């Protein structure tokens, strides 16, 4: 019987550390995988190879040749398939061995022996379905509404931090840090430095929001699960940024491994016509580097935290969003570990 | 593993002197609280920041040029 590599039964701790399965995760910017290109990436603690077929379709496979386990990412792009550099074995985008040139007619031919992840491109990024089981059908992916809205203009900012993914997501569920960590910034200098928060349920997640202030600083965030986990939040611009009101962020954080995270920030604004054009011009010319400086404040703080920083906390009312998120992910990690153990 | 940290991801080179000057002037007008197209055009002209052909801006010439700059 032919063998297909898959990671063993992961424990709940391992799933929690390297990312929840059975959902879509953002993988990398679309521009990283150009036509004819092969790219090796680690995501959720595993090695993957991505390539874009000559017809434009992106493929994502486990980075292991089914013959001897060599990295397919060292191989050759043959238009619709990769030929392993080691012995020339050809694998297509579904993970099926098409040809074993060294031994024509070899019984590996025609068999699906490499794990292939379903892939979609959204807002200039590649998203993939990481099933708990290789055979699980992906759940539908509902595109975050700001990214599907024609009245919205956005830019993707991608970066990587040496911090666990949960720190990055928890940071987004913690609006209060805006008034402190980002007090010296172009966008979050205003407003009160104390607040009461509330959780407001939605049919796809929840809002975590200040009860005393809105539209002045980082005052609310919505957490959504729509096949992919994402947040939406809003931060005011100073008058110098012109018409169009605050900017929004659709944020996603994908584990690279247990200590490193891919950060996806779609910065967006509800602008059309000349207001859109002028914002896009200013974003490229002056605003992008100011946004980047703010993001570096988050990075420095999260990378400075010990990996077990959350082991002896003393939380207060502002941390209800973080607590809610952790409880949800923790319970899901337990469920997924149980399902894997029983499989 | 080297981490991807690139501050400027929406352009490949530095803005030109013209783009810098125009951006600074636009932010100056906006910073005064003037957010209308007419006010912006008037503000740029009175600041002496003119169109690439040396002429004063009109609403039409500005929207055409900013569409080009915004879509690069």
Low-confidence stretches of chain B: none
- Share of helical residues of chain B: 40-55%
* CATH homologous superfamily grouping of the domain at 145-330 in chain A: Naphthalene 1,2-dioxygenase Alpha Subunit, Chain A, domain 1
Distance between the termini of chain B: 32 Å
Q: What general outline of chain B do the C-alpha atoms trace?
A: elongated
Mean pLDDT of chain B: 95
Can you count the beta strands of chain B?
0
The whole-angstrom Rg of chain B is: 15 Å
Overall 3D shape of chain A: globular
Query: What are the secondary-structure elements of chain A, in order, as H or E?
Result: HEEEEEEEEEEHEHEEEEEEHH
Number of helices of chain B: 3
Q: Would you tell me the structural class of the helices and strands of chain A?
A: alpha+beta
Oligomer: heterodimer
Quote the distance from N terminus to C terminus of chain A. 19 Å
Quote the beta fraction of chain B.
Answer: under 5%
Just name the CATH architecture of the domain at 145-330 in chain A: Alpha-Beta Complex
- Name the pair of protein chains with the most residues at their interface, and give those residue counts: A-B, 33 and 35 residues
- N-to-C order of helices and strands of chain B: HHH
- Overall average residue pLDDT of chain A: 96
Biggest β-sheet strands, sense, barrel of chain A: 7 strands, antiparallel
């Amino acid at each position: 019987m032919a063998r297909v590599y898959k990671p063993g039964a992961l424990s709940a701790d391992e799933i929690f550390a390297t990312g929840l399965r059975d959902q879509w995760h953002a993988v990398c910017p679309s521009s990283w995988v150009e036509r004819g290109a092969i790219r090796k990436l680690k995501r959720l603690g595993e090695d993957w190879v991505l390539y874009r077929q000559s017809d434009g379709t992106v493929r994502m496979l486990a980075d292991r040749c089914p013959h001897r386990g060599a990295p397919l990412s060292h191989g050759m792009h043959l238009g619709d398939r990769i030929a392993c550099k080691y012995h020339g074995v050809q694998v297509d985008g579904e993970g099926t061995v098409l040809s074993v040139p060294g031994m024509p007619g070899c019984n590996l031919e025609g068999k699906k022996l490499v794990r292939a992840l379903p892939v979609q491109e959204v807002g200039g990024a590649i998203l993939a379905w990481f099933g708990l089981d290789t055979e699980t059908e992906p759940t539908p992916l509902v595109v975050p509404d700001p990214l599907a809205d024609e009245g919205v203009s956005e830019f993707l900012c991608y970066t990587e931090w040496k911090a666990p993914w949960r720190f990055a997501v928890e940071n987004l569920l913690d609006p209060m840090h805006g008034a402190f960590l980002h007090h010296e910034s172009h966008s979050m200098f205003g407003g009160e430095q104390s607040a009461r928060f509330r959780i407001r349920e939605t049919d796809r997640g929840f809002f975590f929001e200040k009860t005393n202030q809105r539209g002045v600083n980082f005052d609310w965030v919505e957490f959504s699960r729509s096949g992919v986990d994402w947040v939406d939040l809003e931060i005011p611009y100073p008058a110098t940024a012109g018409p169009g009101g605050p900017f929004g962020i659709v944020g996603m954080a994908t584990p690279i491994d247990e200590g490193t995270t891919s950060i996806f920030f779609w910065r967006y604004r509800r602008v059309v016509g000349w207001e859109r054009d002028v914002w896009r011009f200013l974003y490229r010319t002056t605003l992008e580097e100011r946004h980047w400086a703010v993001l570096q404040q988050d990075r420095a703080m999260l990378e400075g935290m010990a990996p077990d920083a959350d082991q002896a906390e003393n939380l207060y009312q502002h941390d209800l969003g973080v607590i809610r998120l952790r409880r949800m992910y923790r319970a899901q990690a337990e469920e997924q570990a149980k399902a894997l153990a029983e499989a | 593993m080297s981490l991807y940290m690139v501050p400027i991801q929406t352009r490949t080179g530095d803005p030109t002197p013209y783009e810098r000057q125009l951006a600074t002037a636009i932010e100056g007008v906006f910073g005064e609280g003037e957010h209308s197209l007419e006010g912006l055009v008037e503000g740029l002209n009175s600041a002496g920041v003119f169109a690439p052909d040396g002429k004063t801006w009109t609403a039409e010439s500005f929207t055409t040029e900013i569409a080009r700059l915004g879509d690069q």
